[in-house]
Amino acid sequence: MHCRKLLETGIDQLKTHLRGPGRILRSRNPELAYQEIWAYLLTHWALCTLICTAATAAGLDPDRIKFLGTVRIVRRSVTDRAAFFP
Fold first, then answer.
1. Reduced to 3 states, what is the DSSP secondary structure of residue 86?
2. I need a surface site. Which of 4, 14, 40, 46 has the fewest CB within 10 A?
3. pTM, whole model, 2 decimals?
4. Residue 12 CB contacts under 8 Å (≥ 6 apart), including other chains
5. pLDDT per residue as tens digits for the range 12-59
6. 70 near 47, Cβ under 8 Å?
C-alpha cells in the first residue's frame, strides 16, 4: 500500500506539476515522444535529488519540502532557454 501511494504521488508530480495539466507531448513521431518522456523522468529525478540534498543540508525530512514549490523556484532561477530545439 505504501509503495502504491509513492507511485501515485510520483505520477501526480509528473503529470500535474511538472508537465502541467491538460498538456500533451509535443513530439509527432514515436522516437521523439520516447525522448520527451525520458526528459520528463530525468527532470523529475533531478528535482527529487535536489529536494533530498537540500533537506539533508537543512536537517529536515525530505517529505516536508513541497515538490511544486521546488518546481517554481527552479523555473524562476532558470532564465535562459536551451540553445537547441528540444
1. coil
2. 4
3. 0.75
4. none
5. 887 777 776 677 777 888 898 889 889 888 988 999 999 999 999 999
6. yes
Residue 38 cell numbers, joined:
525520458
Contacts of 65 (CB under 8 A, 6+ apart): 51, 54, 55
What's the CA gap between 84 and 69, in Å, rounded? 27
The candidate with the shortest Cα–Cα distance to 86, out of 36, 45, 41, is: 36
**Sequence-separated (6 or more) residues with CB below 8 Å from residue 33:** 25, 27
The answer to whether 36 and 26 are in contact (CB under 8 A) is yes
pLDDT > 90? residue 85: no
Cα 68 from Cα 24, distance rounded (Å): 19
Torsion sign (Cα): 29, 32, 38, 39: negative
